[in-house]
C-alpha cells in the first residue's frame, strides 16, 4: 500500500500517545495533520517531533468540539483518514466532573464523524481503552470478553464512543472504523525527545516511579499489597508507547485494504503479558541503576486486581504485535525522565 502523501488527521497529536503515533505515521510515509488545544499537552512536544522527524507538520491549535474550526481543517486539508486521541482521560477527575467528560469526549467524536461523512473521509482509528472490560472474570481478556458496566464516567465515555461509531456504521454512514483498546502505555521514544508529560502529580505508575528515582517525589505509594496475586500487588499489561503507535499505522494500512465497504471492528492492543507493580519497580531499578523508594499503602478505590490482553486478533488481522518488552520500556522511561530533568 502506497501511503506516501496520505494526510492523516491526528486529534490530540501533541499528547503522549498522539505524539508517538505522529512519529510512526511519518516513518510509514503518511503526513500527519495535528490538532491539539494543549489542554493536556505542551507546545514543546511539537519541537520534539520536528527534531525527531525533521518535519514541521501542519498544526492547528483548536478544540475538537469547535465544529466550525474543525470544518475549516477538513476543508483545507485533503484528509485520507483520522486518528482520534483527543479526550480527557483521568479516571478520578471523571468521577468528580462527569459532565465535563461526557460533553468533551462524546461531542468531539460526534463532530468528527459528522465532518468525515460530509467530506467523504472514511478511515477512522479510535483511541479506546481496556478499561471497558472492568474486572473480567477470565484472563486474558479478548475482544469477545463481555463488556461490564463502566466503573467510571471516563470508562463509560469509551464504551459509549465505541457504540456511537458502531451504530453510525450500522446506519449506513460510509465510515471504516477501528477501536483500539489500549492497555497501559508506558515508556518513551528512544531519542528522549518526546515522552509522557504528566501535568502536576502523576496519576499513573511509571511516571511516578521515574520522578521518584529522579528525586522529584520523595516516595512512591504502592496502592495495595494484599491482592490475590503472586506478590500481592495489581497486575497490568504494560505496552511500550512506540508499539502502541505502530498499531495505529497497521490499522490505517489494513483499513485501506478494506476499500469499498463500511465496517466497524475492535482490537486489543497490549503485549498479552501481565506484570505486577513490584515487578515494574524491580525492572525499572535494574534498567536505570536507580533505587526507587516506595511504601505499600492502602488500595486505590476503583483499581481492578489484574488485567492483561489476548492480542491474537490484532496479530492475525492487522499483522501487528508488540515487539518491545518491559525492560526496554523502563530504559526509555528513565532516559526521558533524565532529559526532562536537564530541561528543568
Ligand atoms: C497501574 C497500577 C495502581 C500509581 C489507567 C486508566 C486507563 C489508562 C491507563 C487512559 C495500578 C498502581 C499507580 C501509583 C500505584 N488511562 N499505582 N501507585 O489505573 O491501570 O489505568 O491509566 O486510557 O484507562 O484506567 O494505570 O498507572 O494508574 O496504575 O501503586 O502512584 O499501578 O494501583 O495497580 P491504570 P495506573
From TrEMBL:
Top-rank taxon, per record: Bacteria
Any one biological process term the GO annotation gives: galactose metabolic process
Keyword Isomerase set for record: yes
Enzyme Commission number(s): 5.1.3.2
Statement: the UniProt record of this protein carries the keyword NAD: yes
Residue ranges of domain NAD(P)-binding in the record: 9-332
Catalytic activity, as annotated: UDP-alpha-D-glucose = UDP-alpha-D-galactose
GO molecular function, one term: UDP-glucose 4-epimerase activity
GO cellular component: cytosol
Cofactor(s) in the UniProt record: NAD(+)
Pathway annotation: Carbohydrate metabolism; galactose metabolism
Keywords: Carbohydrate metabolism, Isomerase, NAD
SUPFAM superfamilies: NAD(P)-binding Rossmann-fold domains
InterPro entries in alphabetical order: NAD(P)-bd_dom (IPR016040), NAD(P)-bd_dom_sf (IPR036291), UDP_G4E (IPR005886)
Subunit structure and binding partners: Homodimer.
Family: Belongs to the NAD(P)-dependent epimerase/dehydratase family.
Protein name as catalogued: UDP-glucose 4-epimerase
Organism listed in the record: Catalinimonas alkaloidigena
Lineage of source species: Bacteria, Pseudomonadati, Bacteroidota, Cytophagia, Cytophagales
